[in-house]
Amino acid sequence: MADLFTPLVLGGITCPNRIQVSPMCQYSAVDGIAQDWHLIHLGGLMMSGAGLVVAEATGVEAAGRISHGCLVLETDAQEQALADLVARLRPLSDAGIGIQLGHAGRRASARSIRDRGKGESLPPEEGAWQTYAPSALPYNDQWATPAEMTEDDIIRITRAFAQATRRAVRAGFDLVECHAAHGYLLHQFLSPRTNRRNDAWGGTLENRMRFPLAVVQAMRDALPADRALGVRVNSTDWHPQGATLDDAVPFVRALKDLGVDYVTLSAGNLVPDAVIPKATPGHQVGFAERIRQETGMTVVAVGMISDPVQADAVVREGRADMVAIGRAMLDNPRWGWHAAARLGHDVPYPPQYLRARPNNWTDFQRIHPGAQPVVSTQQADRPSGSTWDRPETDKPAAQPS
After folding, report:
1. How many helices (DSSP H) and strands (DSSP E) are in the chain?
2. CA angle 316, 317, 318 (to 5 degrees)
3. Number of domains in the chain
4. Does residue 387 sit within a domain?
5. CATH no. for residue 37?
6. Which pLDDT tens digits describe the chain residue by residue (401 residues)?
7. Which of 35, 315, 361, 383 has its C-alpha lying 20 to 30 A from 243's C-alpha?
8. pTM score of the predicted model
């Protein structure tokens, strides 16, 4: 029986455990290029004890980024910055390194939280750009109306996803995740609430799936066998005119037929008038469970999960194969280490931090109630006359470094 710390094979990679760091936008890029912030942010999360760290939603073209501060993977300079980033992350842990690729569609050209915005559309004087969508329907009355995509737009963006995938491979990422959720372009095609087309790209569920599946096929073709491909999918739009879990099941079956290695099940964010139930820890796990049961696809559960015991139960009970942690990782970038201690598992620490391991620090259990004693094969180097294992009251006062 698998648990949270059992390895998981995804395509051509093996994650050392089933904790994923969710992709989380940082709005800190300059001209789509990763900055020092991304190294600090992702570098800390590489030392979280997670088995997989996925970098934020990255636009496959400049027009597809959410905001001015979002990453883009369209130019050589953007690719080189990400290659440098991956090279510096790689030695920090044995976690897999992934990147999420997407196109924001009508929700592009937005103010970011770094600009004191709440996701509203940029005005022209702040550098707004033309947005695209399956139908010329704005997100709400305060947003610019997107251009309805032509056949040429569909071809261009499909190729952009494939090219960004090739760039991600060259940059050294182990895994690429396609963002088809949260009200962004591929999700806009999937939902009848936002796709009002009457051609081959709209109408029936089969037609609404056509463009997202073409994108995923292009990404799959661009990805070598030693990497992994995932897709983030919406399970429900929380809207009476939107897509439901009954629509997600056949979509995931089609993704599996294309060779997708896993899906992450999310929900909502398509339209501002959605009726969303109050979010509680694990509130979306049931969606992952049904998809797993009905499709046989490897699934990742999300949704305010912060308790290691709950995360472990999700995997042990077969409700999902992996758990993605977002806010809890921002709050505690050592979440995986502390989860291992709580659940009685041993995870590797970087040598520089070995003195903080539970077996090297007599105060650990006081600070982390419920931690289990673990016998580790990884020991910190102890200088002659080390005081690390003495009772705290016997230790000399710390000296300035």
Report:
1. 11, 12
2. 90
3. 1
4. no
5. 3.20.20.70
6. 789 999 999 999 999 999 999 999 999 999 999 999 999 999 999 999 999 999 999 999 999 999 999 999 999 999 999 999 999 999 999 999 999 999 999 999 999 888 777 768 999 999 999 999 999 999 988 899 999 999 999 999 999 999 999 999 999 999 999 999 998 999 999 999 999 999 999 999 999 999 999 999 999 999 999 999 999 999 887 777 777 889 999 999 999 999 999 999 988 666 666 656 676 777 788 889 999 999 999 999 998 899 999 999 999 999 999 999 999 999 999 999 999 999 999 899 999 999 888 877 777 777 777 777 665 666 554 433 333 333 333 333 444 44
7. 315
8. 0.90
Distance CA 253, CA 64 (A): 27
List CB contacts of 25: < 8 A, sequence separation 6 or more.
56, 57, 66, 70, 112
Torsion sign over Cα 342, 343, 344, 349: negative
Q: Is residue 2 part of a domain?
A: no
- Parent domain of 313: 8-348
Active site residues: 184
Pairing mode of beta strands 19-21, 322-325 = parallel
> Cα–Cα distances in Å, from 84 out to 45, 58, 75, 91, 262?
17, 16, 14, 12, 27
Does 101 map to a domain? yes
